[in-house]
Amino acid sequence: MVKFLSLTTSKRLADRKIARFERNISKKGSENTKKGYAYPVGPIVLGFFIFVVVGSSLFQIIRTASSRGML
Q1: Taking the C-alpha atoms of 18, 32, 43 and 59 in order, what is their torsion angle to the nearest 10 degrees?
Q2: pTM higher than the cut 0.85
Q3: What is the pLDDT of residues 7-21, one digit of tens each?
Q4: If exposure means fewest CB atoms within 10 Å of the residue's CB, which of 1, 5, 23, 68 is most exposed?
């Protein structure tokens, strides 16, 4: 009799999982897609990154030009 009750509970849990899976599958194709372009980083971080990259490249160009005697 205990085995019969555990099978019923197992069947109920399995049915619940199947129902949840089917809801997720039906949602998958109808997700709203964002229109527009969102950056993965904020504008301040992006500005800082550009500042560092451009600044370091300019610093390297100036250092190279001054060490070679301005060829």
Answers
A1: 80
A2: no
A3: 677 888 888 988 888
A4: 1
